[in-house]
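Q: I have 307 residues here and want to know how they pack in 3D. Can you give me a structure?
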Amino acid sequence: MNQNYKISVIVPYFNEQRKIIKTLNALRKQTYKKFEVIMINSNSTDNSFKIVNNWIAKKKGKIKFKNYNKKTSYPSSSKNAGIKCSNNDWIAFMDCDLKFSKNWLQTQVEFLKKNKTSHVMGLCHFTGFDMMDKVYVSQTWGYNSKIAVIPSSIFHKSLFKKIGYFQKTRAGYDRIWKNKLKKYNKNLEVNNKCLIKYQTYNHANSYINFLKKIFNYSISSFKVKGNNQPKIYLLVFMLFVFISLKGFKYVVFISLLYLIIRSYLYPLIKSKKIDLRISSIFFLPIVGLSIDFIRFLAYCLCILRLK
């Protein structure tokens, strides 16, 4: 395996004209210098592509920045395009809406050298931006949780030839690829010192936009190979219907049990700690039930489309 540790940092972007300069500057300030940056435009409809080109034209230095318009539709296909455009043996990923240290690459390379491994993953710290965003996070990833993610991670290029590229879809591809990597490598190499966070909202800036995101991601992830979540939702629904046939008291019991588990027990288990202000206590069940309803609706629509 090449121990030179020259890295190609791949940054997919879609309509990021407000944040992309901040990301470019943060990459330019990295203490580690043996890398190139490959920006992949994912069919942006704003001025993102032009802004990146203008920034590259003005900023000269040792680090080479490249900007490609590959007309990719998904973040996964943009990442795949970036891998194919890369000139180095090591591939790193970053997203435009994330905050990361100037020592990000240095910290990850030191981990690779010390552990002599083919990859290292970083952690995303999910905290939420405002009260409602914290509720959204509590009912999905878990409030104050730290999860190994693709952005901030570095992989040897050969891994993509061995276990495959990312599936071409908007959501779910990262979790499935992580599972494939874990199965191939027997474990995930995670650097606990490498932390990234969202710049602003972890999920969405409004309840409507959050529900739209859950719906669109559910539709997109339905066709991801290895994603068993749709099957689980449908099996739980069929189990509920079966229990309901036994009588009204069973319906009441199973409904109350589900309400307690989904509203409070699930976020308590997922979260490292949870915000228990009165507003959070009120919105936790609303958001939890909404997520399950929207996902179930999206999966049903996908099934109908298949017929």
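Q: Anything worth noting?
A: The mean pLDDT is 94. The longest strand covers residues 145-156.
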